[in-house]
Structures are given as C-alpha cells and as structure tokens.
Amino acid sequence: MNSVNRAVALRISELLREKNMTQYRLAMNNGISHSTLKNIIHETIKDNLLSTTIKIAGGFDMTVSKFLDSPLFHEENLQI
Question: C-alpha distances in angstroms, 7 versus 12, 68, 78?
Fold first, then answer.
C-alpha cells in the first residue's frame, strides 16, 4: 500500500520510462523547477499540491485525469 505521494512519484517514474523522457525535460515541459520535480520523485515533499500534479500531467501532454488513471491511485492501493 502506497501513500499518495509515493503513488505520484511512481506514476511519474512510470511515465518517464514510457515516454523515454528525462526529469529535466519534464520539468522544462511543465514549468516547475527541476529541483521541485526531483523532490516529488524522491518524496521529500510532504504534500503535493493538486496544481503541481496538474502541471506535471501537462508536462506529459495529458490531462490530470489521465495521469491519475492508474492502479496506483485506486483507493485500495493507497494509504490515506
């Protein structure tokens, strides 16, 4: 069971691999700093803002709904 932050980090990593994209490129695409993205991936940020998640999804050229459409975010897989 993952925390929401862990699920976001795993989803980002999954999509980076799928799209053969670097963290730096994603940060450039979505307008958040590379250090913020790195902190999200390494889970040093306690709570991700929805607005940040929306920007990350946009960096992958997808809606936040599509980003969250993963078994990682199914309620039974999350520790809330």
Answer: 9, 9, 8
| CB-CB contact of 27 with 34 (8 Å) | yes
pTM of the model: 0.81
Residue 13's CATH number: 1.10.260.40
Say if CB 63 and CB 39 are below 8 A apart.
Answer: no
Residues of the chain predicted below pLDDT 70: none
∠ CA 24-5-1, rounded to 5°: 130
**Structure-token match 């994603």, residue found:** 26
Looking at the domain assignment, is residue 56 inside a domain? yes
Q: Is residue 79 one of the residues assigned to a domain? A: no
Phi/psi at 2 (5° precision): -110, 155
Name the phi and psi angles at 4, rounded to 5. -60, -40
Range of the domain at 66: 4-70
